[in-house]
Amino acid sequence: MRIVDLFCGCGGLSLGFQKAGFEIVAAFDNWDDAIAVYRQNFKHQVFKQDLSDVEDSIQKIRPFTPDMIIGGPPCQDFSSAGKRDENHGRGDLTIDFAEIVAAIKPKWFVMENVDRIIKTQKLIDAREIFKSCGYGLTQAILNASRCGVPQRRKRFILIGHLGDTDDFLSSVIEKRLSEKEMTVADYFGEQIDIKYYYRHPRSYVRRGIFSIDEPSPTIRGVNRPVPSGYQIHSNDPVSSLEGIRPLTTLERSMIQTFPKSFKFLGTKTGMEQMIGNAVPVNLGKFVGDAIMGYLGVNNPIDFQELQKEFPKSIVNHSNDNQNCDINTIESKHVLISLVTNNNIDMFLDGSARLYYTGKKFPSTVALNKLYYFMPYVKKKGIRDIYIITIARVGSKHELHPQADENDLRLVFEIKRLGELFSDFQPIHLKIWNTFTDMTLGELMEQIHVTALTDCLMHKK
Questions:
Q1: Is 133 considered catalytic here?
Q2: Contact of 25 with 3, CB cutoff 8 Å
Q3: pLDDT (tens digit, 9 = 90+) per residue, 327-375?
Q4: What is the pTM of this model?
Q5: How far apart, in whole angstroms, are the C-alpha atoms of residue 384 and residue 418?
Q6: Is the pLDDT of residue 169 over 80?
Q7: 82, 48, 113, 42: which is closest to 258 by C-alpha?
Q8: Distances (CA, A) of 453 to 383, 402, 428
Q9: Which of 8, 75, 147, 324 is catalytic?
Q10: Which residue segments constitute the domains of the chain, with CATH numbers given?
Q11: Nearest-angstrom CA–CA distance, 365 and 369
Q12: What is the longest distance spanned by two Cα atoms in the chain?
């Protein structure tokens, strides 16, 4: 799945989604210092762009044909650290993000912001834009300390999926949340040599000393030394300031779950600001993992349960009229699957009659809707089309006696109809989504072909 990251900053959200297995193809921001850091840590392109110029931004993002757009529009106007005036100007960037997504219309989007956005008119307006485009929406306020981050940082997440129902991802997210908050000590282990540290409070009615045996408070864009006249607060877990220091820039970046090897550049003030502004890497990964789980990558089909439900066949098209009417087949679902090297010859000469899936076939493929099958040949792409006569549960033991008969897979009994294209067409197929379930119409859009070829009518 191709992702473009808007308002990317130094790359916390990009890195989180990358760690979850997604492909980031481009990133955009308007902050020179953050762009320089981003460029040092990622191989894909990052562009300087004023994303409030919606029309120009759309023209520059569209060529990347993203399947998903992610981003965290600047949140100072909603933040407890800001003036809390959503009409101050930067809150408009939330609407700009929504309008860019609406124009490009990727299958997915993820928007991150501070939790206070939930009380704003800007969020209501953005949701209306997304809903008008057909996105099902899931929103959540996540405590980062329950998402693999040693920091009690609350963040608003809005996830959109075209054609889905609202709250489609809520149960997946809830199941993945840790019951226990992650502490600084949990995360660092022996890498940190202090027991207590100073974090400058917004006002001195609050404490400023924290223990590593609790989650860190929110990492902000400022990191000040202990003031010479600091008076110990009643809630500070110490009776003396001896040995107390603020966290280093590196320690703060690691609490944001950037890896130790992540390269930060610029002035100390600039680095502290971009670290504080960043989405914690592991929070991004948590959201990415939840989407992966929803897609079935981390939630594969239970073959034994499926066999109980469908003891003979999941789908059976063996008696269907196999007329490939150009006006009707574009709405049919096609399964595009990688074929292994030892099976390529059978698919190239059209003699293949069975296709066995891998052990982790994703649960989200619409098995009951599948009608066609297309083999994906490495370094070539796709060309031939088959009808799925029967889809069922079975094992390779049927053809290979040495195989374990209890090693269940999905078995597709297939019949070659002909060539969908006159030559092999490249298509983006990552290993994590080897099994791509889409309609033929969507397939044609993806590879920029406007009509089905006449070759389909030349059945063999």
A1: no
A2: yes
A3: 567 788 889 888 888 889 999 998 999 999 888 787 777 788 889 999 9
A4: 0.75
A5: 6
A6: yes
A7: 42
A8: 11, 42, 21
A9: 75
A10: 2-175+278-295 (3.40.50.150), 303-457 (3.10.590)
A11: 9
A12: 87
